[in-house]
Amino acid sequence: MKSLVLYFGALLMVLSFSCKKKDLKYTIKGTIMDSSYNIPLSGAKVTISVTTANNSTPVQKVALTTDASGNYSYELEREKLQSVIISVEKDNYFSDGTTTTLDNLSLENDNTLNYGLYAKSWARIHFVSDGTKTIKYYKQVGKNGCTECCPSGEMQLANVTDYSVYCINNGNTQYQVFYDVQGTSNNGTLSVNTVPFDTTEILISY
Question: Rounded CA gap, 133 and 181, in Å?
């Protein structure tokens, strides 16, 4: 009888451990901020995808929308995962996100992953001239590394009278250019804080 009790006790422990192990989940949560205004960003889309040892192609697990306080939360079931990919996006904002491995995630505690998105804005570099001069200019301060970004190297314009270049930037941040009108003493630095979702002009008259 005693042996039977011990047997069933051990069986219950094994089943209990098996169920707990099977039900383990990673809690992934965080807050998305509007970095242009330093306020919570509601309505942002948070996509959580995973890869496994057998499939390196990301598979989407869920697409969430942040609440009025910019918060999101998801319980990711423990599987044979290789990596977890989180991407955050919203219309007229630059996207953000990270890729992490399970080594960086905790089963015991919440995994808080916060992100900040900048609103898109534009600097209009407006050249006005008599059409007889050559000007060189380059970006000193402004957004780099995006497909829509203006180049950082030196640019040159010759014999233009009214010409504009539109350069994308993080909203509520500085955009600055240096210009030099060839053969003259007209040169200098001009900068603006670009308005979120709008275009701010930098006028260069020479």
Answer: 7
> What's the pLDDT tens digit per position in 77-110?
988 899 999 999 999 999 999 999 999 999 999 9
**pLDDT tens per residue, range 6-18:** 444 444 444 444 4
Residue written as token pair 């996207």: 95
Q: In angstroms, rounded to a whole number, what is the distance separating the alpha carbons of residues 189 and 139?
A: 10
Residue found by looking up tokens 């996100």 in the block: 97
User: Do β-strands 174-181 and 162-170 pair in parallel, antiparallel, or remain unpaired?
Assistant: unpaired
Length of the chain (residues)? 206
Instruction: Please enumerate in sequence order all residues whose Cβ is within 8 A of that of 30, keeping only pairs 6 or more positions apart, or say none.
Output: 71, 72, 112, 113, 114, 115
Distances (CA, A) of 5 to 1, 12, 122: 6, 11, 75
Burial category of 29 from C-beta neighbours within 10 Å (exposed 0-12, middle 13-18, buried 19 and up): middle
pLDDT tens per residue across span 24-60: 999 999 999 999 999 999 999 999 999 998 999 999 9
The residue type found at 192 is V
- Write the DSSP assignment of 133-193 as a string of letters: -EEEEEEEES--SSTTSPPSS-EEEES-SEEEEEEEEETTSEEEEEEEETTSS-EEEEEEE
